[in-house]
Amino acid sequence: MNIGSPVPDFTLHATDGSTVTLSEQRGVPVVLAFFPAAFTGVCETELCTFRDGMAAFNDSGATVYGIAVDSRFALAAFAEKNDINYPLLSDYARTATDAYNIRFSGLAGMDGYDVANRSVFVVDGEGNLAWQWIAESLGDEPPYDEVQAAVAACTSNA
Question: Which helix (H) or strand (E) holds 129?
Fold first, then answer.
């Protein structure tokens, strides 16, 4: 995807059973934090770091979503264990993962277990890609300060 181009839309299940449609979030910046799997070390660190930085996202009026292929039930348990204070979305059918072209095949050497590669997309209030980062390795963490700067830039450009 190119910066400034429209991002793929999706509808995914939240941990409470409701659905979230990306295109219905227009008007505010949205952070899409795709992660490989709940209850794994780097994923826990990443999502907790976003949790700890929520004040800055809230100040910018941004919405943050964590997205993984785990079931909404597993994501709910993960959110509860880690006090995650933003919605986690289940992409169990891998529709968003594939739309964003970030499928990672064979997590932990398990053939057939395909997950989302760790990646972050910042979507502006018009639904266009403002910033993106895709991990070279599943063990990489995103540049959190760059994510916050991209969100702030969306807000200042609005």
Answer: strand 129-134
Threshold 0.85, pTM exceeds: yes
Q: Which of 131, 15, 138 is nearest to 84 (CA)?
A: 15
Q: How far apart are CA 14 and CA 72, in angstroms?
A: 6
Question: Residue 20: CA atoms inside 13 Å, Cβ hemisphere, count?
Answer: 23
Catalytic residues: 43
Which among 14-18, 59-63, 151-155 has the top mean pLDDT?
A: 14-18
Q: What is the pLDDT of residues 89-127, one digit of tens each?
A: 999 999 999 999 998 876 667 687 788 889 999 999 999
> How many angstroms separate the CA atoms of 94 and 91, rounded?
5
* Cα(40)–Cα(49) distance, integer angstroms: 14
Distance between CA 81 and CA 123 in Å, rounded? 28
Backbone torsion region of residue 67, taken as left when φ is above 0, otherwise alpha when ψ lies between -120 and 50, otherwise beta: beta
Contact 31, 57 (CB under 8 A): yes
Domains in the chain (CATH in brackets) are: 55-158 (3.40.30.10)
Residue that has been written with the tokens 């059973």 in this structure: 17
